[in-house]
Amino acid sequence: MKYIVDTDTNSLEIEREGSTINLALYSPEGFEALSDLWIKVGWQERYSYTFTWFGRPMIQLPEDVLRMQEVIYSVRPDFIVETGVAHGGSLIFYASLFEALGHGQVIGIDIEIRPQNRLAIEAHSMASRIQLIEGSSVSPEIVAEVKRRIPPGSKVLVILDSDHSKDHVAAELDCYRELVSKGSYIVATDGIMSLVADVPRGRADWVYDNPTEAAKEFAALHPEFVLEQPAWLFNESGLTKNVTHWPGAWLRRQD
């Protein structure tokens, strides 16, 4: 693929698979095309590995977490269940939102919580709103423990951010779907894998082995969930598409 950006004529030419697309550079379509390229280069250069929240590394694209906070504010869950802990930055982020809202607990699950990360999370000022569970997110014992910690009738939002292989995400979707409350979401993050399969750090099999594919198949099998990107509550632009690492991630429970 070849991009030709001409700031004299304000045009963008994209050559792909023998065909050429011409776009106005300063247009929603031009922005989306360049954003897709920026996402790929940024992922290759580990741009998302440069952010922290309240002192803890948070390996996320800022747009994704900013849009997530609006969903949390709208849904107002009692519990957020997140698979994948890493350095704990995302857990701290969600806990800080719960602190601002005055209620809520985050349950973080990881097959291995490194001792230094556990110590930092448990010593953090947001620790009272965080519960950690170590073990496989798809093991029956761990799933049962998560369910035991959530009282009946609680409003729950689930975020899947551990092993991003299609099979593992499919298993997590099946394990945690019953926890998701009506009007809330289960979010299969990092479908960007399909978009970066061809960059130097990518893998060719990511084209089909990724969370987005798992979410599509899940939605087809479970009509109580719909694949639906949350609407932007404020938009004075001509844009409609997120700049995201989470394409096709949002599964909303509708009944």
Q: Outline of this structure?
A:
Helix content is 33%, strand content 21%.
Broad structural category: alpha/beta
Question: Unreliable runs, pLDDT <50, ≥5 residues?
Answer: none
Task: Round the mean pLDDT to the nearest integer and report it.
Answer: 97
Strand order across the biggest sheet? Answer: 8-7-6-9-10-12-11
Question: How many distinct helices?
Answer: 7
CA-CA gap between termini: 43 Å
Counting DSSP E segments of at least 2 residues, the number of strands comes to 12
Radius of gyration: 19 Å
Q: What percentage of amino acids are in beta strands?
A: 15-25%
Helix content: 25-40%
Q: Can you write the helix and strand succession as a string?
A: EEEHEEHEHEHEHEHEHEE
What is the oligomeric state here?
single chain
Largest sheet: 7 strands, mixed
Overall 3D shape:
globular
What does this structure look like?
By secondary structure, this protein is an alpha/beta fold. It contains seven helices and twelve strands. The strands form three sheets. It has a seven-stranded mixed β-sheet with strand order 8-7-6-9-10-12-11, with helices on both faces. The chain has a three-stranded antiparallel β-sheet with strand order 1-2-3, with no helix packed on it. The chain has a two-stranded antiparallel ribbon with strand order 4-5. A hairpin with a 4-residue loop joins strand 1 and strand 2. Helix 6 packs across helix 7. The longest helix has 17 residues. The protein is globular, with a radius of gyration of 19 Å. The model has no long low-confidence stretch (mean pLDDT about 95).
